[in-house]
Amino acid sequence: MKRIVIKIGTATLCPDDGLDIIFLDDIARQVKYLKEIGISTVIVTSGAIGLGMSMLRDINKNLNLIQKQALAAVGQGKLINYYSTVFERYGLMVAQILLTREDLANRKRFLNARNTLEELIKLGIIPVINENDTVATEEIKLGDNDQLSALVSTLIDSDLLTILSNVNGLYDKDPHLYKDAKLIKEIRSFDEIPKDIGGPSEKGSGGMITKILAVEIAARSNIKTIIASGREKDVLIKIINGESVGTLFDIGGERLSKRKVWIAYGVTPKGKIYIDQGAYEALAFRNKSLLSQGVKEIDGNFSSGDAVSIISPGGKEFARGIVYYPSDELEELKGKKGYHEVVHRDNLVLLY
Does the pTM of the predicted model rise above 0.85? Predict the structure, then answer.
């Protein structure tokens, strides 16, 4: 193992009033150990808004978007200062990187982010990445950094994504509601994931649902994911040494190129294309392109080169792709025979 991405959520980093320095110091100690045995580490951290709230004690906790953005601006500087100060104790240098979905949706910026991360890793510096909450709107947010951590994992060809949470892993049912819930130690298929998996934590904006989406993104690049409690002693060292900690998601399958991962998960779809049964079978089972004659309905306004969701006859999104025609032209072409290629197969990704 050469590279690991560690995601730390708000509820884990700031469990009470302010950042838990003892916890962060313990993470730095373990990251130092990983570096000594030749493993590069990238950290995806939440906590800017939570830290901002602890600094402005009188603010109402029922926040609107603008208030959250303001709190992120207050808390982010303090957050990276904590990381820098604590990691320096162990001779580690950190670098701050702030991203939004738009940074990943733009192909050029996506590649620039990868190049920057690669250079920092080569220099032995620990990238500390956070979503840029100060400018991120609801439309471009990624979900408490779970998705961001998975996209970063694919970006740098990580060997493992480790999501440190305030729960021990994935349970067979929501442990907050059922006392008899049992921890699942290993998942090898998405069919094994229970439906009742719980919502967001009180402090975070994610929850198990967004973590499972992160697992899916990582799995499309054949990257294993572990969800574990950040509070377990030596959790990172145990994971690297092969001990059973939390829930391991080892879901194999066809490895997607970085570009196809970007199409499926890095870009926000601008519209929906509803297709007929023949087109669905051609795309889902025969690796064909989507032609105009298979298009039934269109929803949304999009341009040529935008990402779109492709909807099956049963009403489920089963694929995403980059569309050749803008929505107004496609409205005229839908259902018409002839070789009008709407989404080429090289620009189309089937979802789980």
Answer: yes
pLDDT in tens, 105-161: 777 888 899 999 999 999 999 999 998 877 766 544 555 689 899 999 999 999 999
What was the pLDDT predicted at 144?
Answer: 61
CA separation for the pair 278, 118 (Å, rounded): 44
For 139, 140, 349, the CA distances from 2, given in Å and listed in that order, are 34, 31, 28
Q: Residues 71-110, buried b or exposed e (16+ Cβ, 10 A)? A: bbebbbebbbebbbebbeeeebebbbbbbbbbbbbeeeeb
pLDDT value at position 268? 85
Pairing of strands 126-131, 94-99: parallel
Rounded Cα gap, residues 128 and 27, in angstroms: 13
The angle that helices 21-36 and 65-88 make with each other, rounded to 10 degrees, is 50
pLDDT band of residue 99 (cuts 50, 70, 90) is confident
Residue 348's beta-bridge partner residues?
321
Strands 3-8 and 160-165: parallel
The one-letter code for the residue type at 140 is: I
Phi, psi (degrees; rounded to nearest 5) at 151: -65, -40
Residues paired with residue 18 on neighbouring β-strands, in sequence order: 16
In sequence order, the 6+-apart residues with CB closer than 8 A to the CB of 293 are: 279, 335, 336, 337, 338, 340
Beta bridge partners of 227: 163, 247
CA atoms within 13 A on the CB side of 250: 6
The structural domains of the chain, ordered by start, are: 3-260 (3.40.1160.10), 269-350 (2.30.130.10)
CB–CB of 298/274 below 8 Å?
yes
CB of 42 closer than 8 Å to CB of 18: no
Dihedral over Cα of 134, 135, 137, 139: its sign: negative
